Amino acid sequence: MSVQIDMGVDGAGQPIEMDLEELLATRLLVQGNSGSGKSHLLRRLLEGSAGTVQQIVIDPEGDFVTLSDAFGHVVVEGADYSLVEIARLAQRIREHRASVVLSLEGLEMEEQMRCAAAFLGALFDAPRDHWYPALVVVDEAQVFAPAAAGEVSDEARRTCLGAMTNLMCRGRKRGLAGVIATQRLAKLAKNVAAEASNFLMGRTFLDIDMARAADLLGMERRQAEGIRDLARGHFLALGPAISRRPVAVKIGAVKTSARTSSPKLMPLPQPGGGDLQSLLFAPIEASPPPPPPPPREAVPAADLMRSIAAPAPSATAPQVPHIGDEEKEDIVAEALREIVADPASAFQQPAVLFQDFATRCRMRRLGNPGLDIAAFRRRLGMAKAGIFREDEEGWADALAIAGTLPEDMLGTFLFIARAARHGAECPSDDAIAEIYGTRSPGRVRRLLQFIEDQGHIVVRTDLSGRRSIGLPTLGWTTASAEPKPEPADLFTRSR
Question: What keyword terms does UniProt attach to this protein (predicted)?
């Protein structure tokens, strides 16, 4: 399902949109000097995709914690927890698909790197069942993936750089889409920056940064001078999720704001009497030191984990009409029907399709379809076989048999059972492979052999090579299917 995020307008006033699904597959790099509008751009992206995909923000300055008020993000103060607790929180975040902001404000640079490394490492090492799609936004990425050694220890730098490399290089298959922002490309490790396929380049002045930005955008070196002239909030964009050719973008407005902002000019105070010298050097009266600020109350890790696992509060629940069980089942069935009708879904991971399924249900005002990932896999297998409802008549026995097979074989067995029940032709290896989610003919043969060894099917091939499959327990049999013609050899084709 395609979701477009409105990022702003081009020079002609035409809207520029970012394809969220493409972004999840191809990652994003944002570059610009301090004050160029990087954080504003990231905030526009986060606000535009909130509620559609899980968001995880690594925030070294605490600027993005304001997302919690408007969009319900959970704020994790990194300074309040140990590295072990940070890793456990990250595991819960992946499991429950909570959108969070990891605020590292109050930590020294080395401690920020250790905390981010533990957090990213736990996200990356999550079990396969928790590989849900998520945007992982890392602001000031040059801090966590430095190109050269700095003032921090080598051990902290290597650990954090390894976590960032895993995010950008290997995170895609685990559902993690890296979105990194940096002030200077020259300070960012090249193997981290090189994995992004989408770029938004803002104002920069140093020749080495302009040259690298021009190379990434496919511009000639003489055109790189234009990067220096970009106004604040203006970026040059390129990538499969945005545009196939470089395009200028003026980032649109945002709903939330950072806790800090750029300094503004204010009139100087006028002395009430006497000159400034007498005011500054007046005798200083001894006074007691001001009381220390009250200590910040840290949320215990166990309480924060429970809040992550709990469902998000629904302030508008009374306005949502009640959906009965029958209507809920209709919505679930229709969402599954749309998913299996999409040819691209055949080879996608169930966790990715689960995110798509949840979004389709929410668009139909069904916030909780009542399916976890295990139940969704079962319903997805049924849907691939053309069974979209739990209560469809005549399938109870077949479903009971399918329940004894491994989870990934359920859809294949039911697909064969549907053909056998109606006396249709025996499905081809290609059709079975698409249902199973493979392109390997050998895997299809091993799959059929395994199901036959369990006694659930009997595969027959007559002398002419026509195949049929029977289900002895149910008494159903497919019609014989003509063998696929053998491809002509090279000699025959040349003739």
Answer: ATP-binding, Nucleotide-binding
The number of domains in the chain is: 3
131 within domain boundaries: yes
**Residues 351, 378 contacting (CB under 8 angstroms):** no
- 221 within a domain of the structure (yes/no): yes
Between helices 109-124 and 83-96, what is the axis angle to 10°?
40
The radius of gyration of the chain from alpha carbons, rounded to an integer in Å, stands at 29
The tokens describing 378, both together, are 């079962």
Q: What is the pLDDT of residue 468?
A: 93
C-alpha span between 159 and 407 (Å, rounded): 37
Give the pTM. Answer: 0.65
Co-location of 144 and 187 in the same domain: yes
Residues 6+ apart with CB under 8 A from 22: 240, 241
Q: What are phi and psi of 142, to 5 degrees?
A: -65, -20
Q: Which two tokens stand for residue 173?
A: 């298959």
Q: What percent of the chain has pLDDT over 90?
A: 37
On whether both 335 and 378 belong to a single domain, the answer is yes
471: number of Cβ within 10 Å: 21
